[in-house]
Design goal:
- This protein is mainly beta and about 425 residues long.
- The chain folds into two domains: about 70 residues, no CATH class; about 350 residues, 5 Propeller (Tachylectin-2, Chain A), CATH 2.115.10.
- About 5% of the residues lie in helices and about 35% in strands.
- The longest helix has 6 residues.
- The radius of gyration is 22 Å and the shape is globular.
Length: about 425
């Protein structure tokens, strides 16, 4: 997968020689759009890679077009699968980091416990030297497992993890936001935090409730520009599949949620909802990988609507982490544009960043995909690694037939982590 996910088909190089007088630099007419003439004198200084996902810096585009390129799935997929009893129901939600000092990839991935009542997860750790071949280190000598010492809270699940090297407290270098239900019922779903010195031994903070609700992965990020933490999670209560944002200065006190990603006319084509968004900071902006869940249904998939009850990945883009735009086949599209009346069928199909696999060919990931959270881009050579969880089943795989009935003995789908 090429490092440039969206290409304008041209390479723009801006070279500026030192001038004897401190006069403002003026960009040639039509080269770059004037964003703030009073401050910059008409010039915009490009200090790093510029992604042409949006057209903010493009004055005009002739003889070329922007195109959303889909990443290439690794030929060794899935790169990680269930192998042990404690990995039941997994791998599920996950986070991947790369440690440049140790030259080591680390993957935290969720599995599930067998218990009555509210669902509850385990948290496992895998490591890799190349990001493709993964090992599961023994972290518990008594059980011989790769289970980390996760927060002991009823309903623990859906963690998102960051490595905060700037925190002066060594015990808080690794930070986590997660969902839980302390009283064991879905009525108390909440978002909580935990800290760790090493990413293995975790301790939850009390009181548990820091942010109301969210029963899917919560992804925190450090906003270096504004020196604050951001978190991206599900809207609620009530439980609505929309993407929301909140922020904090200390990882403990969070602002009210603000909804970022809402349904539009383009989403009506496949009755699309948004399961979660995994953000990463890259090239002066933020890219969000959205789990786009289509046409929720207990009924079987039909040839007329092959997207039924399946999830692929779409993109969102932001320059400040606050204002986000959806990404289509030709770059960013504003919410206002997406609410216009037109035939959105072709645009909906062109908005897929990572497609689910082929059901007829029985691909391992034909059913639903879940983006893995990589807080910082993992760049290997000229490629960016995107990880995801996949499964060979529809979302509501425990239901069969039409009219649908709950299968008392369903066959669990095979799941894995893809690259």
């Amino acid at each position: 997968m090429l490092r440039h996910m969206i290409s304008a088909g041209i390479l723009l190089t801006l070279m500026v020689a030192p001038l004897p007088a401190a006069k403002p630099l003026k960009a040639p007419d039509g080269l770059l759009k004037d964003l703030n003439d009073s401050n910059s004198g008409g010039a915009i200084l490009l200090r790093e890679t510029e992604l042409f996902i949006d057209a903010r810096l493009v004055g005009s585009l002739q003889g070329a077009k922007r195109k959303l390129n889909q990443p290439v799935k690794h030929k060794q997929n899935p790169v990680l699968v269930k192998e042990n009893p404690w990995e039941e129901g997994g791998p599920g939600y996950g986070t991947v980091h790369y440690d440049p000092k140790k030259k080591l990839f680390r993957m935290w991935y969720q599995t599930w416990k067998k218990k009555e009542g509210v669902s509850e997860g385990n948290l496992c750790l895998a490591t890799s030297k190349d990001g493709v071949k993964w090992t599961k280190p023994v972290l518990n000598s008594k059980t011989g497992s790769n289970l980390v010492s996760a927060p002991t809270v009823t309903g623990f699940q859906c963690p998102g993890i960051i490595h905060d090297v700037n925190d002066p407290d060594p015990a808080r270098r690794y930070k986590m936001l997660f969902s839980c239900a302390p009283d064991g019922t879905s009525a108390t779903w909440m978002t909580s935090a935990a800290f760790s010195p090493d990413g293995i031994h975790w301790k939850a903070v009390k009181p548990f409730e820091l942010i109301p609700f969210s029963d899917t992965q919560i992804c925190p990020l450090w906003d270096a520009r504004n020196r604050r933490y951001m978190a991206f999670l599900r809207f609620g209560p009530p439980n609505v599949r929309l993407v929301a944002r909140t922020e904090s200065h200390d990882f403990l006190h969070w602002s009210p949620k603000v909804t970022l990603i809402r349904r539009t006319n383009r989403d009506e084509v496949q009755a699309t909802q948004f399961y979660q968004m995994a953000p990463l900071a890259y090239a002066g902006g933020y890219i969000g990988l959205i789990g786009a869940y289509h046409n929720e249904s207990l009924k079987p998939i039909t040839p007329e609507k092959p997207w039924t009850d399946r999830t692929d990945l779409q993109l969102a883009y932001s320059r400040d982490g606050v204002i986000w735009s959806r990404v289509g086949g030709g770059g960013t599209v504003t919410h206002t544009e997406l609410m216009t009346k037109r035939d959105w069928g072709p645009a909906a199909r062109a908005s897929v960043f990572l497609p689910y696999g082929n059901m007829k060919k029985k691909d391992w990931d034909w059913g639903y995909l879940t983006p893995y959270f990589t807080p910082e881009p993992i760049i290997v050579g000229n490629r960016i690694h995107f990880y995801y969880a996949g499964a060979n089943a529809k979302h509501w795989w425990t239901w069969t037939g039409d009219p649908p009935k709950l299968d008392p003995n369903p066959t669990p789908p095979k799941k894995g982590v893809g690259l």
